[in-house]
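Minutes, project check-in
Item: structure for the 99-residue chain
Input as provided by the requester:
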Amino acid sequence: MRALTQMIRDHDMARLQRLTAAQNLTREKLAQLPVRAQMNIDPALFSVQQAHLHWSAQQMMHLNLLLARQRAALIEQRAKTARSFGRADAVARLLDHKT
């Protein structure tokens, strides 16, 4: 029983770490997106800059939604991991108390 609760705890902890890593990667991607472009006199370059800023804004919206979903999953997983730690601790105490 102890081994099972420890395996579940370890599984939940690993999932929590994966979710945290994914959230950090999304934050890094958001930080790399350009927010502004320098004004350029050349009309062709200005048009390209505007298209890139539009693409960047679309990416930012997508990444922000992804970040919100990741945050919700992380909050849910934290609670699940806390329960797993509690169960593993309770089982360990019960088994230690019996012996």
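Outcome recorded: The helical segments are 2-32, 43-98.
No further action items on this chain.
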